[in-house]
Amino acid sequence: MIKYNTKELFEKAKELIPKHKLIFVEDVIALIGISKSRFYELITGTSDEMDELRDLFDKNKIELKVSMRKKWFDSDNATLQMGLYKLLSTTEEHKKLQQTYSETENTNTNTNTDKVTVVFE
To answer: What is the pTM of this model?
Structure first.
């Protein structure tokens, strides 16, 4: 196992994320071959490095979503087209498309705010 310092690990992660279109930090950790705990010791969740890696993950996620929606749009598969339509539909259209749609509303009108005291003996 290679012993990484923060800079080396960060640069390796920045290289792998776009190259393999990764969207999860766990995939980076697995590809690099480092333990999860060691990775987070070197690149903490609140560091500037992690923020930059998150930006790369987000970029890959957006590209993937756009690509999938394009494929769904171009497809003759009714299931894919229905999935896309649900993503694009208004709330009213979405309700009409659902086989089972449950709308819940809290109708509790209890305004009793008396305190309850529990005494253990």
So the answer is: 0.69
